[in-house]
Model the fold of this input.
Amino acid sequence: MSPTVVVTRRAHFNAAHRLFNPAWSDAENARVFGPCANPNAHGHNYNLDVSVAGGVDPGTGFVLDIKVLKDLIEEHVLRRLDHRNLNLDVPEFAATNPTAENIVVQCWRWLAPAIPAGKLVRIVLWETDRNLVEYTGG
Amino acid sequence: MSPTVVVTRRAHFNAAHRLFNPAWSDAENARVFGPCANPNAHGHNYNLDVSVAGGVDPGTGFVLDIKVLKDLIEEHVLRRLDHRNLNLDVPEFAATNPTAENIVVQCWRWLAPAIPAGKLVRIVLWETDRNLVEYTGG
Amino acid sequence: MSPTVVVTRRAHFNAAHRLFNPAWSDAENARVFGPCANPNAHGHNYNLDVSVAGGVDPGTGFVLDIKVLKDLIEEHVLRRLDHRNLNLDVPEFAATNPTAENIVVQCWRWLAPAIPAGKLVRIVLWETDRNLVEYTGG
Amino acid sequence: MSPTVVVTRRAHFNAAHRLFNPAWSDAENARVFGPCANPNAHGHNYNLDVSVAGGVDPGTGFVLDIKVLKDLIEEHVLRRLDHRNLNLDVPEFAATNPTAENIVVQCWRWLAPAIPAGKLVRIVLWETDRNLVEYTGG
Amino acid sequence: MSPTVVVTRRAHFNAAHRLFNPAWSDAENARVFGPCANPNAHGHNYNLDVSVAGGVDPGTGFVLDIKVLKDLIEEHVLRRLDHRNLNLDVPEFAATNPTAENIVVQCWRWLAPAIPAGKLVRIVLWETDRNLVEYTGG
Amino acid sequence: MSPTVVVTRRAHFNAAHRLFNPAWSDAENARVFGPCANPNAHGHNYNLDVSVAGGVDPGTGFVLDIKVLKDLIEEHVLRRLDHRNLNLDVPEFAATNPTAENIVVQCWRWLAPAIPAGKLVRIVLWETDRNLVEYTGG
Done:
């Protein structure tokens, strides 16, 4: 049986967002989210590490061609999020606060059904060099 | 005479912006700036490297205390730009396109008069890990 | 049920230490620890990655506010270790060798009881860019 | 009982390789592997993160001396791969395509029997800053 | 008069090479270049930082559109060097040793005539994270 | 005439230090240097970038062999500073405050006379990822 390896591709996107719960008053949003609730938005260079686990194909030596994984991330995630305002331009965050936690879970929902070989096992989203979140589907 | 050393402090800020020339039509802005002209903005984690040159003080061994430089960057730059929408929240970019080039020159104008020892000699602004600009006051 | 996400905050501290077992002779310490046993100490810029897992709060979109996590790391770890000599200034390392392994376990003991939401699941301590240790509480 | 900690050492090597399945025609190799099948090879700066888990020795405070781990990686991996053409200079890749997946599994086979304390638990191989693979022995 | 700003774009390429002077004996090449003279080549992930200085255009706020600079680097450098064996696949290095020094000078010769606005002022080539060269046209 | 290229080698060392002017009272040292004056020292992972400029040798394609530069940095700098307490173990800092400014100037004095080909043109010393100093001999 071929060994199981995890393959990870790192992608980048630039986006604006505002931490904001539309069910709350402006004062409540400002109290909870501080400067992150600035109505005109701020932004980030996000890094996204997408990991797929599977057996190594004896013919190619690949779990899946990392170029295929790169293209899937572009099609299913970057096309929706790159150079966007997450609150205003992305329907999934119209009513859901675009925190790193909610973004990483949404990326999983977009990507998991699209992986053609192996299985999506982990997504890490870096909001800054010091703040990151990780989701494994649970 | 004491040697002349350049001291650099790196700071970070997160901001949204839109590349946009208000004197142009929307179509012209879209043609020139592409996805960077998205009306709802996108954003970045900016890094800012501020460099001051001067003689080394024989008493302290400092050109200037880097903690002082850190505080000056917070007061003169980060307080204005961090967690802001550059086009909408920063008066200096109300009519000036907030490209990396224009931001770095504006940071110089804010910081140069405030340096208490030595002389501001270089500011580098990183918009992403691959795109950066550098200004030396000329 | 809300998804479970791991949130990580990276912190930094600068400290001096000496690898040294007080129960051994100087010669034995020198033999085992080499230049790391230098009596006058050497030092490092440590990075500390603290990870908390939990359900995403539907109101905030957070597992826990990462600013809260940042403040807890400052209160429980950085206040004790930053700009210190680990052997001489930190009671927990008076009789315990401040190896990366022992430091990361001690950080866990300080932080685990303090996490207000979710659960501490992993701490990674980087002693240099090439040497790191990881503890998950076992 | 002493806590269990994972210790990781990062190593580097520079190598040339060509993605190529000798059982296939040149056209098939070009179709599957694209520019990576260039007959004259291309190359990478590889990073290799080797992780060993074990109890912390009460005398040394180490799982294993990271200098020992460094030396084992040099002896068992770098001596074979650094400054080499993986296809032409490394017998294990004469008939096996030197994809990142196959390299990381081979590094495990070389290293696992050599670890003197604790147990090899993870190897991560970075082919570029954006492409990496991880193997845990399964 | 508009301020003069330096704009830098970082690009990447992966290549194999061998340090080798065809005018010397194999023994002389091995003595001077050590493992870098391995006949079957080794390789690197190269980073290339290309810097252009010029006045900031009042309409666009750009020295030159960094996307244009990115495309020029792809056309004039990456198309020639990426996924290649520098000695065997690149005519300019058929008789010239592909050291970092010679590569960076060659990149300058390819790029300098192509810059449409501003002036090429610096190219930095990173062969590894610790070895780099810089050329300013002199 | 051969082009002039700048070659840079990055080296690392780990050291403890205390910012302290022995001519001042303890209170004055604490007031000026804050936690950096901690009598038991703290420490850093320093990075040192040493740059040599010169003509490219037509035979080797080198300004100078970067392995030679690496060895010179080890002999003239790392042997003195790595795994040391700068104040207590290094005679040059017995009476001179080991600030980053004073360290970088001292490294220049050690290295400049030793460079066998080309000319030392710049040394950059990183005390942390955010604090660095640069000396060009003036």
Observations:
- The mean pLDDT of chain B is 97.
- DSSP finds four helices and five strands in chain B.
